[in-house]
Design a protein that fits this description.
Elements: H1 6-11, H2 19-22, E1 29-37, E2 42-47, H3 53-62, E3 68-74, E4 91-100, H4 104-120, H5 122-125, E5 128-134, E6 138-145, H6 149-158, H7 167-173, E7 178-182, E8 190-194, E9 206-212, H8 215-225, H9 240-244, E10 251-257, E11 260-265, H10 270-281, H11 294-302, E12 317-321, H12 328-337, E13 339-341, E14 366-370
Parallel strand pairs: 7-9
Antiparallel strand pairs: 1-2, 1-3, 4-6, 4-9, 5-6, 5-13, 7-8, 10-11, 12-14
Helix pairs in contact: 4-12, 8-10
Family: Belongs to the oxygen-dependent FAD-linked oxidoreductase family.
Cofactor: FAD
InterPro entries: FAD-bd_PCMH-like_sf, FAD-bd_PCMH_sub2, FAD-linked_Oxidoreductase
Length: 375
């Protein structure tokens, strides 16, 4: 969520793409300093497990309404070690990896493999985190893998999550893996293969994987890749190159809708990723001023739309956050309706008791039902 700063992230619990490996962000907080109102005057306190322990417990996952947080001390999480034959750590961005069903038996087998990988193969699955969706026809995932393309292919393939389409079907579904990478020596993403080259021995699956040599670059690319989705959450003018203070050659023109044209960044370029990082560090940048920009609100008014308004479209759908292990029959029922998974929560979060801190949804599932056009 690009609209959430580090303090809001930690006080809200802190879930993201590496949560399965590192736990909730709040689980790694060691100490807080805050200004509180004690009933008579303002007081500056330190809170940890020994001092002001109740305040410390409640702040970690309980939200930011208890005081004004001024300092946060957290533990440092070690990055996963590279494979013995690799010279450095690798981080993978997984983009639109899809697993299609061919009948009810295929659906059951696919979802059971998915469930088993997340909740029983945690020595491997903790390296993967992100978001996904379940539908009556397929499931898909997007996220980060803490390892190389080679590790990812081996792990996901042996656990039945890379659907090997027969060559006769592969052409129909465009089921050829796309592998790209950004090395420390390159200024742009390199196309390694698209169903040929080093990928020719891989299963014929649908999806794109992009390998980076730092976690920061992987996350910057993911953020850049999603800017069209988050246009209404930052104070962008719609011209991202202008906002990022980079050459117009780094953007492509498009249309947000019939009323508004925009220029989106070319995320394959290292210079664009560097500009995103610089904007993130600058507290005065457009990127650190949340909320919808005026042009976005003007469009909603011009079109007679209210942002996030319910529609009369059917069918009913589900959306929300899926956290705990559920049986395959439940997954099938959820898939038949359709659901979005905001953040996978397998792995490390489950190693803490539900009362470890004020995170309200540890080991629970949140499914928000949207009855479109109805109360």
């Amino acid at each position: 969520c690009p609209s959430v700063g580090i303090t809001g992230y930690l006080l809200g619990g802190g879930s993201g793409d590496v949560t399965p490996s590192t736990g909730w962000g709040s689980d790694d907080v060691l100490e807080l300093r805050a200004v509180i109102w004690n009933g008579t005057n303002a007081e500056y306190i330190t809170a940890n497990k020994e001092e002001n322990a109740d305040f410390f417990w409640a702040s970690l996952g309980g939200g930011g309404g208890l005081g004004v947080i001024t300092d946060i001390k957290t533990a440092i999480v070690q990055s996963p070690e590279p494979l013995p034959h690799e010279d450095r750590r690798k981080f993978l961005y997984i983009q639109n990896l899809e697993f299609h069903y061919f009948g009810e038996e295929s659906k059951r087998e696919g979802l059971e493999s998915f469930r088993r990988f997340l909740y029983e193969k945690t020595e491997e699955s903790h390296k993967f985190g992100g978001s996904g969706s379940l539908s009556s026809e397929a499931f898909s995932v997007n996220g980060i893998y803490l390892g190389s393309a080679e590790e990812f292919i081996e792990s996901f393939d042996k656990n039945g999550l890379l659907q090997n389409f027969p060559s006769t079907f592969a052409h129909l579904f465009s089921a050829f893996p796309v592998f790209r990478k950004l090395t420390s020596e390159a200024d742009t993403l390199e196309d390694v293969c698209d169903g040929t080259g080093p990928c020719q021995d891989w299963p014929n699956f649908i999806g794109t994987i992009i390998e980076f040599e730092s976690y920061g670059e992987a996350m910057l690319y993911k953020l850049c890749d999603q800017v069209a989705v988050v246009m209404g959450r930052t104070q962008t003018s719609g011209d991202w190159c202008k906002d990022l203070k980079i050459s117009p050659d780094n953007c492509v023109s498009g249309k947000y809708d019939e009323h508004f044209s925009h220029k989106l960044p070319i995320c394959e370029k290292r210079g664009v990723l560097d500009a995103f990082l610089e904007a993130a560090y600058d507290p005065e940048s457009f990127f650190n001023h949340g909320g919808p920009p005026e042009w976005w609100l003007d469009l909603a008014i011009k079109d007679g739309r209210v942002p996030y308004k319910d529609t009369d479209d059917l069918p009913t759908s589900l959306g929300g956050l899926l956290i705990p292990d559920v049986d395959v029959d439940t997954l099938i029922k959820i898939s038949d309706v359709g659901t979005g998974i905001n953040h996978f929560q397998h792995g490390a979060p489950m190693q803490f008791s539900s009362d470890y801190n004020a995170v309200a949804h540890r080991d629970t599932a949140i499914l928000i039902e949207f009855l479109r056009g109805e109360e």
